[in-house]
């Protein structure tokens, strides 16, 4: 029986605690409302400022990228021009060497022809005697 009474008393206290009506919600004071509005404006202003800073940073990055791309393009153009100049110089050198070789060949051929003519003349002269 003691246990039964203890359980009933505990249940009574528990139901009283849960059945208790919560405190009434008080409406915010005008000062609180003003502070909240001011805080919201401040947050909006900070977000706007952050957006501006982000836009400036993006523009700066884009500018640096464009400058780097232009520098790379300029270097590539300069390298291409250097390669073309070297190829032209090599072609000219090759052409000059070939011309020299052809000239030597022509001289050797003329010299050989001259020697053959002299030998033929010597043979004719010795047979004519």
List keywords for this structure.
about 130 residues; mainly alpha; 2 helices; about 90% helix
Outline, from the CA principal axes? rod-shaped
Count of helix runs: 2
Strand content: under 5%
* Helix content range: over 70%
Mean pLDDT: 86
Rg calc:
54 Å
Low-pLDDT segments: none
Profile the largest sheet.
none
Return the structural class: mainly alpha
What's the helix-strand series?
A: HH
Strands, count: 0
Termini separation: 172 Å
Structure description:
The protein has 129 residues and is mainly alpha-helical. Helix content is 91%, strand content 0%. The longest helix is centred in the middle third of the chain and has 99 residues, at 30-128.
Blueprint of the fold:
Layout: H1 2-19, H2 30-128
């Amino acid at each position: 029986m003691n246990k039964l009474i203890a359980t009933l008393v505990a249940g009574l206290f528990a139901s009283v605690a849960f059945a208790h009506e919560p405190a009434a919600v008080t409406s915010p004071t005008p000062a609180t409302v003003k502070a909240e509005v001011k805080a919201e404006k401040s947050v909006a202003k900070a977000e706007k400022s952050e957006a501006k800073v982000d836009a400036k940073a993006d523009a700066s990055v884009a500018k640096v990228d464009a400058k780097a791309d232009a520098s790379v393009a300029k270097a590539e153009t300069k390298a291409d021009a250097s390669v073309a100049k070297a190829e032209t110089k090599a072609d000219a050198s090759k052409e000059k060497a070939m011309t020299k070789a052809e000239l030597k060949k022509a001289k050797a051929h003329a010299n050989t022809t001259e020697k053959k003519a002299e030998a033929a003349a010597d043979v004719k002269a010795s047979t004519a005697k």
